[in-house]
Sequence to fold (71 residues):
Amino acid sequence: EMQRSLVGSEMCIRDRNVMLAVVNPLIELNLSRHFKANMEISYFYRHTHYTYHKDIQYKTFETRVGLLYQF
Fold:
């Protein structure tokens, strides 16, 4: 019984087609001689196609904003 479960899991793992797309632009803006502002945006899209199970899609979006002071 345990052997059959493991073989089934291995089949699921091997029987898939995965696509991952990442878009990651970075914007920097010089505010003055000492200050910079930056913003980084990340968008991740993953689509996993299984032959024997439903397809799975994930979308993730995140934004980072920073302020930099240089001496």
